[in-house]
Fold these 2 entries.
Entry 1:
Amino acid sequence: MQEILQYIFSGLTTGAIYAVIALGLSMLYSSTELINFSHGEFVMLGAMGIVTLWVHMALPLAVAFFLTVACVACTGLLFERLAIRTAGNAGHIELVIITVGASIFLRGVGMVIWGKDPFSVPPFLGHDSIEIAGAALLPQSVFIVIAALVLAGGIHFFLKRTLTGKAMIACAVNKKAAWLSGIPSSTMAVTAFVISTGTGAAAGVFIAPITMSSYDMGTMLGLKGFCAAMIGGLGSLWGAFAGGLLLGLLESLGAGLLSSGFKDAIAFVLLLLILYIRPGGIFAARDAKRF
Amino acid sequence: MRKTAGKVQDGTAVEGGIGMLNHMNPPHMNPIDNRKHRVGAGAPGSFLLRYMLPALLICLMTMAAWADETYKIGGIFSATGPASFLGDPEQKSMEMMIEQINAAGGIDGRMLQAVIYDSEGDPAKAVSAVNKLLHKDKVIAIIGPSTTPTTLAIINFVERAKVPLISCAAGIAITTPVKPWVFKTAQSDLLAVAAVYQHMQARGIKKISILTVANAFGESGRNQLLDQAAKFNIEVIQSESFGPKDTDMTAQLTKIKSASPDAVVCWGTNPGPAVVARNVKQLRMEIPLYQSHGVASPKFIELAGDASEGIILPTGKILVTSLLQDNDPQKSILEKYETDYMEKYKANVSGFGGYAYDAVNLLAKALKGSGGDREKIRSSLESIGNHMGVSGEFNFSREDHNGLSSDAFVMVEIKNGTWKLIK
């Protein structure tokens, strides 16, 4: 019983990481209908930013956090301006391929700036694990879950309750119609990118103490985050959140109860099953687009 | 305007050409040459062709003549790419050694010349590099590649061409079974596992769980751990794995904890093992944790932080040079390598660079008196014995083309954020 509880805690730890990454992906999809495969690299930039500003330059944590998020969001803005906007009326596939290219580019830049060695970041709240009924949980994991909840709540509020957010969704539903009714669709797209990459950077900052940061951490995390977003249903924020936790739990229960060799296989077979039964994901409002 | 400019330029190009052909004529007799002063752009071009080209040719010819006097040695290293932590120091060490040997007068009066290619850790690129070395550069021996997959990819080529290869990779498949032309200087996993098991036996550890990374390094370690266990009366009760980029291993460790083994062995390269170390502390596991030589670098202590306390691992002696006793025959060699490398590259040495350092030294020994004959080089490599290198004492023989014993490893424990030698 104690072990099961520990597996659940482990699952929540990894799941919260996937969830907080999936959020940014899902948010961008719900406002631009674009899947950004370089999202993992923006998470990496966030983690590396906190390494540089907090660990190496010893700025106060809050300052380092906001500076990192601001810098990475600016990179996101540049990315939209220079790579996505210039593609003009390219189709979905072309844009997705552009994001894949951007991910390779950003990884290369990360390698040149920070080198190939991984870095460690101390946890924000103490090293000691909390013990609940004989199972251990790191305070940082709790922190990540809370951060994911706050981010999801914040984005949800922004999209559903503010005019800019509603305009953003309008652009995603029908760009031309939104433009005709006076919504500056290009400004909306750039705002969506800034928020999404900023969320990615925040995710990177929160997960850095658990994952260790290196230039190539983004690829796998981005992929797992994408899976989490798919399970939950792309475009649904709470779906992304739940999908992340579910993927983490499946992995850790699979590793613990069956075999660690099949950990990823178990999780991905279940992912396929879920998508087979509900192609749009668990929380999908509408059917997912097929590329 | 543009068109006119183009025409003028075209004209000069032709003039330059004609000028070249007619360069035997005295300049004042040649109307075309006189016009050249009017259109200035043509002058430098023809000057280049007239005087520089012969000079260049002469230079090339002298270089070719000089090259005949040298021994050409090939190098293939993963200087960039994911395995650059191996290839980069290896390439630097090789260049440094060649320079030192040449400064001391070369071998039998002949200079060494290194031709080094980057494999980027990719077997396909290693194959194209080996073909260039064998057919274009015509080297007499090759050092490298840095990784096991790249080495295995080129073995057939050097065997067929009968060129000695001294690999810097660790996989035992390289020299087992023995191939006549293939040697290696890196310690095998086999020896690291033996060193770990010897230490466990001395501590009375009987039941262990192993946790290995799901890549070539971890797989090879896992096979060795399982194969050699019986020989040391050790039982492996669990074998778990983790992905190279996994961020949390508490699930596997919880499973291990519930089986209560005497010790845990983790086999991987950074950053996974650092996460394992942290998770072990997080779960408050009180059993000893052994790591592999794959994390034997100060980076591991930095990554794992407090969680690295008490971890035991095998390592080449280079990591603990200053802790070795003064009568250790390897100490002076290690110190020399460290100071030389530090002076030249302003960077700390790693055991990896040592593989190439040893390879060049062994090759230099074998080259002496060979006159560049490849078969002679090969047979004298095979007969090298008691050669003290950075990685250990080499005793090559017909049956052993690695030549190291488990003495090549020492066991260290991490205490107060630094290494402590276990006697």
Note: Chain A has a mean pLDDT of 87.
Entry 2:
Amino acid sequence: MKPQEPIPHNYSMAKLNLIFAVSALGLLFVTGGIVLYDYVRGWKWFQWEFIRIQQERLQQDLRAAQQGENRTRMAQLDKQIKQQELTIAAHRQQYVLAQRDLDQWEGQHYAADEDYRFAKANLDAKRYELEMAVLQKRRDRAQTRKEYIDLSNHVDDLQLRLQAVTRDRDAVQARVNAWLKKIKDAEDTRKQLTASIDLVKKQLAAVSTNGQFFILNAPMLDFISPTFKIDQVVLPDLFVNVNYMEVPRVDRCQTCHRAIDQPGFESKKEAARLSAELQQKLDTYQIPQNKRAATEQRIAQLKRIQDAPQEILNPWRTHPKLDLFVGSASAHPLLEYGCTSCHHGMDRATEFGRAGHVPPNAKMERRWSGFWNVAKRQWGYEENPFDETPMYPRQYYEAGCVKCHANQVQIKGGAQITRAEATVELIGCYACHKIANWRFTGLRKPGPDLTGIAEKTTPEWAIRWISEPHDFRSTTRMPSFFYQRNMVGPAVPAAERAQNIKYQDAEIRAIVEYLFSKSKHRVWPAPGPGDAARGKQLVNTIGCLGCHVDTETVKGATTGEMRLARRTDFPLERNYGFNLTGVGTKTNAAWIYNWVRNPKAYYPEAPMPSLRLSDQEAADVTAYLVTLQKPQFMQKPIRPVDPEAVRELAKGYLVNTRTDRDAEAKLKTMPMHEQLVYLGQRSIEKYGCYSCHNIDGFEGLKPIGTDLTIEGSKALHLFDFGFVHDYKAEDGVHEHVLHTVPSWIYNKLRSPRIYDDLRTKAYNDKLKMPNFHLTPEEARLVTTVVLGLTKDQIGADKIAATDPQTRAAQEGLKLVSQHNCRACHIVDGYGRAIASLISDTNFLPPDLTPEGARAQSPFLFNFLKDPTVMKIRPWVSVRMPTFQFTDAEANTLVGMFAAEGKAHEFDNAVYSMPPASNVAVGREVFNMLRCAQCHATTPVNPEAPPVPKTASTQSLAPNLTLARVRLRHDWIPDWIRRPNEMIPGTRMPANFPRDPATGGFISPLANAIDSPQFAKSKAALMPYFKSEADLKRTMADPVALTEYLRDYIWSIGITQIRAAAPNQAPAVIAPPSMPKQLPAMKTGRAEQGGGVTAGR
Amino acid sequence: MTFLKDFINTLSAASTSFLLLTSVFAFVVFFNLLEGKIRSKVGAIFIAFGTLFVVVGFAVRPLLYLGIAYFVILFMLSNLGGRLWDKRVGLRLLIGALAAFGLSMLDPNFFLIAAKPDNVPIGAMIFLLGIFTWIALRKAYLNDRQLAAGGIPWEKTESDEKLFTWPDLVYTEMLCMILLTIVMIVWSIALRAPLEEAANPTSSPNPAKAPWYFLGLQEMLVYFDPWLAGVVLPTLIIVGLMAIPYIDTNPKGNGYYSFRERKWEIGVFLYGFLVLWSFLIITGTFLRGPNWNFFGPFEYWDPNKLVPLVNVDLSEIIWVKLLGMPLPKLWILRESFGILLVLAYLSLPPLLAAKPFRRFYLKMGGPRYYVGSFLFLFMMALPIKMVLRWLFNLKYIVHIQEIFFNI
């Protein structure tokens, strides 16, 4: 065979080997890279960092525990132990001997015990043998019986021996113990002292980063039992929507927010707030005795946090409101509510950006966006366009309350959201924007009725008003529809601006023309002569100013100069009625007179109640109100309307349904007035005036605005951001528009036409939402509510306030809100806006927080319907108005008060009659406590009791004969015991002070009964008690004393009052004859002639 | 710089049509380049064509850019001549292209699209396609030169050599495997999987794009109804690819690279693959933005950009615009021009077989000629329709909505 020709290699083998070596190493490295990439997670770093923080904290705690007095005591104990050991060593010989003795005896005891137990076992076996022998009639049964008896005796012997040995051993044991006890006692004390230190040490061991820790968390090994792991809470009845499917939330927030449910990691600011809060509770005995020690420890912990060198930063902070959220004892424990159910965000995400964190402002967005840098709090944030439920930014946190608490007017612990919802109700967002939840349905239209506008004011005023309501009243809730940013703003080209102004002029004029042509023209009787000074006095004292503000200027907080008022300068409740400024310019004496006498006569659903003014009072008030003039407003020029603009606009509507030719023909047949009325109707439709006002011809129309029922769930891409990024708001604040839903809503509220900036739009296509001139704070509140309106699904038992009693209470609270009771009263803990106007608290309308527990339901019902049935405090000048509640409404309110006062609506104790002896004792106690100093006890007419003549207003108090029909049987003694706790600041003195040690009440008569001044009383009381001891026992018992007092008060009370008068029917006034068309208008200073009327 | 970007943005919209319009001619230029010469007659036609573009371009703005770009490329190609296949020139071209791409990455809008993890492979594909096409054509050029000089193809000389399976083949294969694995791993770590939100049938992403390999088909849907673009044409692509061995019976060029011996075969394939398939994928990836609107490479993908929809049918152009008549009620009458036009297009092969393409007809035989030319006609239907759309806003040539038959 021919030898094969050598074939040369195509490549150098050495080179290939080298490449192989290098690439194999490369593969190894990248494989390591896979492991590393899989291993390195942001959340692990957060957990690692938290371990470090924990160690730091615990070491700090350890140092604190080891320091101070503990330290010296411990050193003492150590010394003691050492000394005992020395003593033992000194007497070692004796101790050793005793110990040896003991050992020996232990051995003997063991043997004796064993002998006894074995013998006993044999005895039992023998007993069985004997029984069988007897049963089977065996011949050897006599023998067996003998053996059994012998054995039995033997067992008894052994038992005796065991007892003897045990006794001896115990004696020796005692000797040894006596030696040992000395050391043991000291050690036990030491153990007690070091218990807290041991606990901290144990905790430290649990978070120590030792070898085991590293092995458990090593890459590739961390599948076994890692300490770094994702923590999650599964919430089976709180759902997240995954397109057509509701899946339970799985919150993993705790993976990084490690300390969220552990107290002790608060920020310094929070720690200061919490410790002050707790200290205050501690000082006022609000914390039960058994929890005081724990509270003190907690305060000490919070103090340590404030003194710590390092501030705890997010995400390692404790939730700031553990008593309300997250804490296991709170209303929203972590395991049941998780985090995203309130905060929103991606429940399952474990990365900063993906979890749906949303920057609260532009500054924060810039900071977060920086490349990951822990020191600078930069997290490499990126907006996640795929997150459909981003978190609520910080300033809107309480939006999360709405989805479960939409059934409530007031949310306990949610001051912000309660105020926000009240703001929405006051401003009236719900009128134009349907919000289909309980809170915002069934509310009245926020604007006044316009079907009688011609009776009330003039077209000249109405035109100026619609043009810019804020020029007339800076605090008005009526928004500005016209001449807004997208019509006349700087970004609008000049030619277009001029055209827009013409159009807007025409629309305003047309709306006024329509309203006045459709208006009723009733003629109201004119008032008699009135005294303006007295009228002013009345307005200031009878309570008008609870709902109405009478000024338009306030002193600026920073500058101290007078400036135009905003709504936020006054309590929310005082914006309920219109600002009285300029009311004389707006309307006429006849209308005011009839309105203040009976508002329901003008408009049956008028929110204004009747203050039961007499004709003269009404005339006085009218005389005063007509003096409130604002003449400069009527000087504002009214531009004459361009007939061409009217024509063009009207035609614009006409061509929607007809051709251009037909529209032109139609217009030719319409005189100017008709064109205006037509345009007015269309403009009212366009701007949605009818959503807030009753307007003839617009009954039953759907509201104009977007439905907001699930606005908070609307996807980001459905919001039109226009071209605006930042702008200067009308109040000079520089606002930024972030690409987030909250920011969009906020800026829409701040400047409703902002998203039209730089856009090219036809006149009728421009944004129409009017400008409410909301302050940043108001806009933030309203945004909070809108964000909270989501479509999130919640389990039935997570929805708040669903039980019938709470429902009734909430219905009542809604009525309270709708009728603005809080203008004068405190209801459920807050309100009484009028308080700032009345300096003497004795003249304030009452605090109604305990009203349900205080007043009997029948009385309350009658009083609410007709406050004239009883005058409790005749010296108070503020009048409880007649609201003309229906029976159903009054019942709802009564039910609400009962529920809020945690009392039953029906009180059978009302009918109980106190025994005569109780009454007699009560009268004596009444005298001894000198109650009659303030309270009268002579019967009076409940409808007009005399004002008590006292030297000081301090001692004005209700007549007690009115108590029986009004107050609850159980409430009276309770009230006498602790008036200040029920109504803080009450004038009723606390006769029964609390004992700071026990928290119980102390009777002032306990010792005083023996004093000489009460000798007569004592003698009078003696017949009612078995012995003097019994008397003294009773006098020292606050409960018994107050009940005697109650029985006395009960006995002197009247038992009946008049029933409420039926509601007044609205007055019917004959329709008069007045011109249907508008008269020629006075157009102010710039009167030019011509205009619309000239063209007619 | 801004001006340049604007210019390129406008150009890119136009250059798509330009590439399709001129690609046929460009290939002819290529053929001649491969032979190292441009015939003066052909050159004159090109110059006249470009001039026409520029002149008309003053009226129809995109055509101006088109004409300018046309001249630039023509100049580049003619100047390079045979030197295009020089290794150093190839390298320079590659570096130039990479540099242009790298510089473009400085533009935030371009970067946003090109650096998107889904799009990175498409970016790589542009270069890989260019490199491999260049290598293949270079080999063909070298072989052709050798053959012309009476030599033998390079592959022939190589096939006589002998090599060990181990280590020469298997070892190098293993090395390739390892290196490729490394690249894939590094890639998968460096660029995260572009996961998006949970699928939601009620809110589709904008733009909604097909997987990258179907973007060419998606682009076709802009110009044809689904039954054509989604059913008939893809079927014909597959059938046509299967038919290649039966139609192409040219024995030359087997086992070695050659262009001169297979001008038509290579030309048609490269046109179909590079221009009608790969280029449309690249267009779909980089130049189609929200609402499937066309965006230049440096343009911001604004979802609010509005493009007027003013396309008209051929019947409207003829009846309403040219003849000033209402559209006939009867569809067969209304669409008669369109139908005639389509029939005329389809009857081109037999007509051409009579005289101009007689040579082909005789060489291939009847069945091969007809099958091949029909496939070619269907292939060319796409660029023709595209150009008609761009130039005349033509919606349908035949539009019979009564029976849902639209071409």
Note: Residues 15-67+205-216 of chain A form one domain.
